[in-house]
Amino acid sequence: MPGLGTISNVICIGLAADASMALIPELSSLSVRIAFLVSGIVMNAIATSMYIGAGFGPGPRDGLMTGIHARLGWSIRSVRTSIEVSVLLIGIDASKIAMPERMKAITLYDVALLAGVSYQTVSRVINDAEHVSARTREKVQQAMAELHYVPNLRAQQLAGKRTRTLGLITTDLALHAPSQIVSAVKSRAAGQGASVLISMVEQPQQCQAALQALLAQRVDALLVNVPLDDPHAEALRSLATPVPVLFLDVSPSAQVNSLVFNAEEGARLGVEHLLSLGHQHIALLSGPESSVSARARLAGWKATLAQAGLDAAAVAYGDWSAASGYEKGHVLLSGAVLPDAILVANDQMALGVMRACAEKGIAVPGQISVVGFDDTADSAWFSPPLTTIRQAFREAGERSVEWLLSPSGGEECWQVQLPVTLVTRHSSARRTPQQAEREDLAQQLRSLALLAGQLARK
Hints:
Layout: H1 4-22, H2 30-55, H3 60-72, H4 76-89, H5 108-115, H6 119-126, H7 134-147, H8 153-158, E1 165-170, H9 176-191, E2 195-200, H10 207-216, E3 221-225, H11 230-240, E4 245-247, E5 258-261, H12 263-276, E6 282-286, H13 292-307, E7 314-317, H14 322-332, E8 341-344, H15 347-359, E9 369-371, E10 388-390, H16 393-405, E11 415-418, E12 421-423, H17 433-457
Parallel strand pairs: 1-2, 1-3, 3-4, 5-11, 6-7, 6-8, 8-9
Antiparallel strand pairs: 10-12
């Protein structure tokens, strides 16, 4: 039996000849001849693709478009347009030819067709199996590139080629700490052949829905970097069982797997640094009252000040952003007495505080010292460079992945506190004689005000 491609050529040539005889001479132009030539090519491709579709993989309807695409390398739009023009010219009802609105997904069979190999060979190349020659591997890879074929990860998993997947629930990635942890998690997971699905939430109350959505995608383990109270964290752990969950922003008292920084230790280092410089009138800018880590830092500051027989000069609460640091900085700087120093719960808010100082003409560190918390990548480039408490976020992200992917990843109540360190730069300095005089004057004024109040009551 003659090949369908040959038959189609004969038919198209015959149609072109009959049509040419019927046309008036004025229309026998180069453009008409080109149209018939295109018709012949397309019809050849149609016949060939239908033949391929019937015997190799996709059915005739799907094989029509895919076969032409593979045979001629045309885009789907070009194929559709060419067929429509061709069938119009040769008098076929275009509605009789089924053309899908969009090309079907490229499959192993399509790659095998273009490469001239079996679909089993394509599968072996994708799975990096042995016993495939370099030349055959190159042909298959070239076909995959030409067809823009991407292996189906889920199908590979179902077929037994297991790729572990981690689910990560995180707070706002515009903030330094969460973004650094996410970057480290993705990098370390990729290095161990695992993928990461990320769900970002704005409020802790959204964690349950995010966790359920990730569990529905069959993740192997979960990482939660959202500030959670003990009952909330423990409820999420129970909901996720038996999938292991590791929390990065909870209290050490929570009965869950956790890897956290020692917030109290960081707070102590900041206060002791300022006390060593002679500062005693110290204001505090905390993070949100709803944040576990913010509350821990504030409690650590107050406890260390109390041990030195001091109270905070003033306390304000920001939302971790530089804008809130700027706003609350103006509040702290507007009191009757200027504080010697300000302890800030993160570096981004510290940047806002320093901007407020600059606008009020208050020199840092000449008139006031500022100490941050986190040690972001930009903190060394503030003006002046910021003294801060360093938390190793990349280490936290990497160790989280290592534990979750380890054989002991389901171990109950694995709890680790990572150390923090003081990084001394130029935003803090020793208390000057002028500051001491100002403090003495302020103390005298407070004493006079107290005396005046007592006299008034008499």
